[in-house]
Amino acid sequence: MARLYDSRKRILVTGGAGFLGSHLIDRLLAQGHEVICADNLFTGTKRNIEHLHGHPRFEFMRHDVTFPLYIEVDEIYNLACPASPIHYQHDPVQTTKTSVHGAINMLGLAKRVGCKIFQASTSEVYGDPSVHPQPEEYWGNVNPIGPRSCYDEGKRCAETLFFDYHRQHDLDIKVARIFNTYGPRMHHADGRVVSNFIVQALRGEPITIYGDGQQTRSFCYVDDLIEGFLRLMDTDKSMTGPINIGNPGEFTIRELAEKTIALTASTSELIEMPLPADDPKQRQPDISKARELLNWKPKVELEEGLERTIKYFRTRLPELLEA
Ligand code: NAD
Ligand code: UDP
Ligand code: UDP
C-alpha cells in the first residue's frame, strides 16, 4: 500500500514495547515513518515507549498477536515474544502460541496487504550447538521436549512458516537470527545475564554465576543490532535470510562478571549457582553473510556497550533499590 504523496511508510512493530522493539521504533520514527506498535505488555512496558507519548507518527495498540489483526500497513517487523528464559518459561504454552499463531497471523496480514515482513528469530534455533561458530547452514541441536523447547521450537516453527509463505505465496520475508543482545531498556528482572550482573553489581549484591562460568556468549549492543535489522529490511526480495545478526566477540560468563565489577567499581563478590537445564555451553555467530550481503558489522565493543548500559541502570537505581 504505497502512500500517495510521500515515501513515508506505515510500519507495524509487534512487541514494540519491549527492549529491542522500542529501540527499533525510535530509529523508524527518526527516519520519518509512521509506526504502529502492537504489544500485549506481557514482558514489555509502557515506560519503554513513554517518551513517544503524543508523537504524531506513533500509535500504540494493546494487542495479542495470537489473535488476528486487520490493519493496513506497508511493512511488518514481528518481534512479539517473551525472550528471556524466566519469561518464556512462565507460560510455555503461551510462548509457543505467540511464536506460531503470532507468525501465522502476521504472515496472513502481510499476504493480504502484500507487504514485506521481518521475523525476529534467534540463535536458540541452533540449540546447544555442536558446530562452532554457528553459520546459517547449521541445522541445530535442539531438545524438542525440554524447558527451553517452547521458545526454541516455537521460533523454529515460525521460521518454517515464514519460508513456506515465501515459497507458497511469494511473500517477501526477512528472517534474522539474533544473538544475545544487551543495552538500555533491558528488563531489570528478566534474569538475563547482562542485566542481572549490572543490577547485582550496582546493588552491591553477590554476582550469580551459573555453573563454573566457563560457558561462553557473544554480546551485541542494541544499536548495532537495530542497524542490522534496517539493512536486512532494505534488501530486495531475493534476500530472505535466515541471517545471523550478532557480535562475534566471545566471552566467558566469568569474564563478563569481572568486567561488570570493574566498570561499576562494585564490591560485589562472585558466587556460583547451579547451571540451568539445557544451558548452551558456547555461542558465537558466524556473521560472514551479514558482512557480505548487508555490508554490516557491529561497531560497539563490549566495554563501551556495558558502560552505556550501566549508565541506564544507574538512572533507574533508586527504583531498583526499592524493588
Ligand atoms: P522483550 O521481552 O523485551 O520484548 C518482547 C515484547 O513482545 C514485549 O514487549 C512483550 O510484551 C511482547 N509480547 C510478548 N508476547 C506477546 C503477544 N502474544 N502479543 C503481543 N506482544 C507480545 O524481548 P526483546 O529482547 O526485546 O526481544 C524481542 C524479540 O527478539 C523476541 O522475538 C525475541 O525472541 C527476539 N530475540 C531477542 C534476543 C535478545 O538478546 N534480546 C535474542 C534473540 C532473539
Ligand atoms: N490474518 C490477520 N490479518 C489479516 C489477514 C489474515 O490476522 O489481515 C490472520 C487470520 O487469522 C488468518 C491467518 O492470518 O487465519 C492466516 O492467513 P491466511 O490468509 O494465510 O490463511 P487463512 O485466512 O486461509 O487461514
Ligand atoms: N547466567 C549466569 N548468571 C545469571 C544469569 C545468567 O551465569 O545471573 C548465565 C546463563 O546460565 C547462561 C548465560 O549466562 O549460560 C546467558 O544467559 P541468558 O539468560 O542471558 O541468555 P541465554 O542463555 O538465553 O543465552
UniProtKB/TrEMBL annotation:
Q: Where is the NAD(P)-binding domain?
A: 12-309
Recorded metabolic or biological pathway in which this protein acts = Nucleotide-sugar biosynthesis; UDP-alpha-D-xylose biosynthesis; UDP-alpha-D-xylose from UDP-alpha-D-glucuronate: step 1/1
UniProt cross-references to CDD domains, sorted A to Z: UGD_SDR_e (cd05230)
- What keywords does the record list, in alphabetical order? Cytoplasm, Decarboxylase, Golgi apparatus, Lyase, Membrane, NAD, Signal-anchor, Transmembrane, Transmembrane helix
Provide the GO biological process annotations: D-xylose metabolic process; UDP-D-xylose biosynthetic process
Q: What does the record give under GO molecular function?
A: NAD+ binding; UDP-glucuronate decarboxylase activity
> EC number(s) on record?
4.1.1.35
What cofactors does this protein use?
A: NAD(+)
Compartment(s): Cytoplasm; Golgi apparatus, Golgi stack membrane
Q: Name one Pfam family in it.
A: GDP_Man_Dehyd
- Cellular compartments per GO CC: cytoplasm
Major site of localization recorded for this protein: cytoplasm
UniProt membrane topology term = Single-pass type II membrane protein
InterPro entries per the UniProt record, alphabetical: NAD(P)-bd_dom, NAD(P)-bd_dom_sf, UXS-like
The lineage's top-level taxon is: Bacteria
Which family does the record assign?
Belongs to the NAD(P)-dependent epimerase/dehydratase family. UDP-glucuronic acid decarboxylase subfamily.
Protein name in the entry? UDP-glucuronate decarboxylase
Give the organism the record lists.
Thioclava pacifica DSM 10166
